[in-house]
Each structure stands twice: as structure tokens, then as C-alpha cells.
């Protein structure tokens, strides 16, 4: 039975709303007794546009002195949904809160501000957030002075903001992905006015440098660019994250150098499509390959990146990655489908043959490379034959692992208007078969590690056994082995004794031979 399509129209009925005032600073309205100050609100038509105006870079971004003690003696919680980009945004949010005097807590009853940093890529992520809001409503009733905010990608969607205004009037703040730097001002406005504050920029903002970040552990994420211009037909990201805009290379390199000075062991460069880095520069020619080559020279043990688009993965980048050193042998290369016809429907702008040729080049240059991917099943119109093409590609490439999904329509994307003519049971059966194929590939690759000695960055204790440590290899394999907590944050050499499907077991060796 097909899933019932959501009726978003009920969230656009504002017949009971009253405009209190309107000026250059936005407008104030009243809905069901709650006053709402809308500085700016999402507009999907504007989000689809790609303006030619130059992106400005701002460096003077310190929290104003008058706001630096606003959170003194108070506590915060930030819940993060979604991808690494959201995780990194949460690091910035936490950094801003702590510059305002707030301290972290895990106790909801102790929290003075709770923010939900949201993901819009799939419908179930959206459902989780609204479910969480339902739980937090009771806490807000018990503690009305607590600030409750929704931010991130969901906030960039018109229907989401309208749903919150109509159904979740207890929320205090809504802001988006382009104006995180305005958080201190929005908190001040919300505290002083007692109104709901909405400030979502539909047009992508400038690049804001020098924002504080609350990083934990020995691994760090570094944004190198923002936004996406690919407009895959199923994807909401180009609307929620805006047009592609690259940070200046000197700013990225300076941040990585500082992280090296602070002792971080691993850096992951982030972007919706890192391969497009530098293509928006008008004053110089400087590509992602150039950036990786420069960062290759910085004294940090491991450098990763995510995520890449096959269309922009050029020979120069393959050549740089083949240099090894601190450039690890793991590439996440989303394919989405093994059918050229489906790839065309998805707006991916490459063919099955192009993808397989790219894989061939990568494996020739980096023989021990680990490849992971994203795959969607049940895209509108996908036939049994086209799905079989995906299975055959999975077996031909030999992935170490994959993120697999049943297609989820997102309102406002071209695919949402396509006829979703595949029964859910068929989609589930395809997902099951795909996952079995990925498992077979992963297990076969892991078996090859038996008896080998690998370098592992120890991340922490296993969730199920405090005597067992967990860490990752250069190829991003999860390794479990016995050891003490003093090893957390260090590199150790582990001999693989027991390959599993999604992780491998081993034992520490004191005098390693050449590690792989």
C-alpha cells in the first residue's frame, strides 16, 4: 500500500493571524495568542535562484561584549540531526553559546536553552524532529523561561516554518543555515521580547570566518565550502544550503595549521560537493586538487574529505590523492544508481560508464583504496532491470560499505512531482537485496585483512564492553581490540584476527612490521 502523501496546505492557513506591525526590521504577527517577530522567512522561489553578486568574506565576528555574559550561570543542550555538515554547524553553535557564558549539560531539566539542529534530506529525519518537539512541549510547560529553538536545514523550508507557527507555538526561535552567526542577537531578542523570533535567510549569506567552535576529541571537521549547484532532482540541499561558495584557501590552510598546532590527529574537509571547491573563484585558478596538495604538506597524521561528486572528480585530484602520506586511502563516492537511465532521471549528469571508469582510475592510482557510496532504491520509474544494474555495479566496484535508502520525496524538488509508481513492498525487497550485496562485498574485503597489521586511531571504549577499545584505520575500517583507556587518542598497531561484516577484531602488537 502506497504511503499517504502529506497535505501541507493546512500549514499555510493564516486566516487567524493578525499583523501587529511591519517595518524595515520585519513584521510582528499574532497567532493564537503568541506574538511572533519575523525578521526574515524562507522563500523557496528565492532559494532556487543563483545570484551573480560577489560573496563577501567577513572576519570581524566576535560576540559583542554586551552579549558575552548573557548566558552566565546558564546551561545549554544542542541536539544534532543529519550529516557531518550539521555536526560541524553544531560545533559553531556550541562555540557561540559558550562565548556568551552558557555551559553544556545533558540534563534537560537543567537546560536554559535547547536547540534542535535539523536535517531535511529525508522525511523520517523531519518526523524525528517534530516527535522531539512533542516531547519538549511538556518540559517547556514546566519551565516556560527555557528557550527552545529549531535551526538547520528544516528551518529553510517554508512548510516546516509554517507548521511550527501553526502547531508548535511554544517554540521560541527559528533560524536557518546561512545566519548561525546571528544566534547571540536572536537569543537576546527572544529573551527581551518574550516573542517567537524567526530569522531565516532565503538567499545564501556571505562567508563568515573566525566563528568559535566547540570541538571535542582528536578529530576535527573543517568546512572548505558551502552550498551545492548540482540540483539533483530528488535533493533539497541546493535550496537549504544555497549556491556553491568556497572559503579562501589561505583561511582553510590557516585553520588546518592551527588544528595541527592544537594536536588534532585527523581532519575531515567538508562540503556538499568538495570537488567543486574553487570553481567560484573569479580572481584565481585554484582547485580542490590544489587545496589537497597544499594541506598534504601540513603536519597532521590524517586528512579525509566528504562528500565528493563523480562528475567533478578529475584526474588531477586522483594524482594528488595517490601521493598518500597524510591523505588517507578512503573515498566516499556517491553513485545513487547503477542505471544510466535512472542517473539521468536523478539529474546526476554522469553515466554508469563514466562512474566505472573513474573507479578504475582511482583503483589504478591507489591500489589499497577503500570505496564507500550512497544508493537510492525505488526512485520514481525504476524498473526491475534498472535495479539489477545497480546490483551489478555494486558487485563490480566492490564497496567497503554503503548508505542505502528508499527514495523519499521532498516537497519542492522536481522528483516530488514525478509519479511514485513503485509499491512500498517492492522498494523494501530491493533495499533488502541491495543490503545483502553490500554485506557480501564488505565481508569479502574485510576477510583480506586477516593477519595484517593496521594503524588504528583509538577513538574510545566500545559501547558494549569497557575493556574493548574502538578505533579506525586509514581506510576508515572500524576495529575492536582489548586495551586500556590511556590509549584513547593515540595511534596503535593492531593485528587483525577476526574479520566481521561491519567491523574487524584484532590484538595490539608491540613491535609492528610495515603497517597497512
TrEMBL record:
InterPro entries: Elp3/MiaA/NifB-like_rSAM, Methylthiotransferase, Methylthiotransferase_CS, Methylthiotransferase_N, Methylthiotransferase_N_sf, MiaB_methiolase, rSAM, rSAM_horseshoe. It is found in: Cytoplasm. It catalyses: N(6)-dimethylallyladenosine(37) in tRNA + (sulfur carrier)-SH + AH2 + 2 S-adenosyl-L-methionine = 2-methylsulfanyl-N(6)-dimethylallyladenosine(37) in tRNA + (sulfur carrier)-H + 5'-deoxyadenosine + L-methionine + A + S-adenosyl-L-homocysteine + 2 H(+). Binds 2 [4Fe-4S] clusters. One cluster is coordinated with 3 cysteines and an exchangeable S-adenosyl-L-methionine. [4Fe-4S] cluster 1 binds at residues 83, 119, 153. Its cofactor is [4Fe-4S] cluster. Keywords: 4Fe-4S, Cytoplasm, Iron, Iron-sulfur, Metal-binding, S-adenosyl-L-methionine, Transferase, tRNA processing. Monomer. This is tRNA-2-methylthio-N(6)-dimethylallyladenosine synthase. It comes from Paenibacillus yonginensis. The lineage of its organism: Bacteria, Bacillati, Bacillota, Bacilli, Bacillales. The gene is miaB.
Amino acid at each position: 500500500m502506497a504511503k499517504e502523501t502529506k497535505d501541507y496546505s493546512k500549514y499555510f492557513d493564516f486566516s487567524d493571524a493578525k499583523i501587529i506591525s511591519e517595518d524595515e526590521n520585519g513584521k510582528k504577527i499574532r497567532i493564537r495568542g503568541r506574538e511572533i517577530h519575523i525578521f526574515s522567512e524562507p522563500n523557496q522561489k528565492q532559494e532556487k535562484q543563483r545570484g551573480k553578486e560577489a560573496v563577501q568574506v567577513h572576519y570581524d565576528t566576535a560576540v559583542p561584549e554586551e552579549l558575552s555574559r548573557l548566558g552566565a550561570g546558564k546551561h545549554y543542550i544542542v541536539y544534532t540531526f543529519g550529516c557531518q555538515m550539521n555536526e560541524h554547524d553544531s560545533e559553531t553553535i556550541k562555540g557561540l553559546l559558550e562565548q556568551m557564558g552558557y555551559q553544556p549539560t545533558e540534563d534537560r531539566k537543567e537546560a536554559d536553552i535547547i536547540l534542535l539542529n535539523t536535517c531535511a534530506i529525508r522525511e523520517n529525519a523531519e518526523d524525528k524532529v517534530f516527535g522531539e518537539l512533542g516531547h519538549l512541549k511538556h518540559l517547556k510547560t514546566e519551565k516556560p523561561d527555557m528557550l527552545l529553538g529549531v535551526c538547520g536545514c528544516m528551518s529553510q523550508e517554508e512548510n516546516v516554518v509554517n507548521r511550527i507557527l501553526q502547531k508548535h507555538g511554544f517554540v521560541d526561535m527559528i533560524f536557518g543555515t546561512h545566519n548561525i552567526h546571528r544566534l547571540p542577537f536572536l537569543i537576546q531578542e527572544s529573551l527581551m521580547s518574550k516573542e517567537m523570533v524567526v530569522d531565516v535567510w532565503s538567499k545564501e549569506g556571505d562567508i563568515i570566518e573566525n566563528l568559535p567552535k566547540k570541538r571535542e576529541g582528536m578529530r576535527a571537521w573543517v568546512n572548505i565550502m558551502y552550498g551545492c549547484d548540482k540540483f539533483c532532482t530528488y535533493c533539497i540541499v541546493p535550496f537549504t544550503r544555497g549556491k556553491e561558495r568556497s572559503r579562501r584557501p589561505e583561511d582553510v590552510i590557516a585553520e588546518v595549521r592551527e588544528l595541527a598546532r592544537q594536536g588534532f590527529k585527523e581532519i575531515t574537509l567538508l562540503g556538499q560537493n568538495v570537488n567543486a571547491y574553487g570553481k567560484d573563484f573569479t580572481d584565481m585558478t585554484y582547485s580542490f586538487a590544489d587545496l589537497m596538495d597544499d594541506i598534504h604538506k601540513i603536519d597532521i597524521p590524517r586528512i579525509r574529505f566528504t562528500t565528493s561528486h563523480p562528475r567533478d572528480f578529475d584526474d588531477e585530484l586522483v594524482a594528488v590523492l595517490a601521493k598518500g602520506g597524510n591523505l588517507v586511502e578512503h573515498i566516499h563516492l556517491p553513485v545513487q544508481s547503477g542505471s544510466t537511465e535512472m542517473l539521468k532521471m536523478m539529474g546526476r549528469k554522469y553515466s554508469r560508464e563514466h562512474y566505472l571508469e573513474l573507479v578504475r582510475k582511482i583503483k589504478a592510482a591507489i591500489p589499497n583504496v577503500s570505496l564507500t557510496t550512497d544508493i537510492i532504491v525505488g526512485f520514481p520509474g525504476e524498473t526491475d532491470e534498472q535495479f539489477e544494474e545497480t546490483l551489478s555495479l555494486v558487485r563490480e566496484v566492490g564497496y567497503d560499505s554503503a548508505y542505502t535508502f528508499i527514495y523519499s520525496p521532498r516537497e519542492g524538488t522536481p522528483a516530488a512531482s514525478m509519479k511514485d509508481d513503485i509499491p512500498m513492498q517492492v522498494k523494501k525487497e530491493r533495499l533488502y537485496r541491495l543490503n545483502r550485496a553490500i554485506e557480501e562485498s564488505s565481508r569479502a574485503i574485510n576477510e583480506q585483512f586477516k593477519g595484517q597489521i593496521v594503524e588504528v586511531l583509538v577513538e574510545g571504549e566500545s559501547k558494549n564492553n569497557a575493556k574493548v577499545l574502538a578505533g579506525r584505520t586509514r581506510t576508515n575500517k572500524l576495529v575492536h581490540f582489548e586495551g586500556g583507556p590511556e590509549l584513547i587518542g593515540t595511534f596503535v598497531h593492531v593485528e587483525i584476527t577476526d574479520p566481521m561484516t561491519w567491523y574487524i577484531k584484532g590484538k595490539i602488537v608491540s613491535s609492528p612490521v610495515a603497517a597497512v
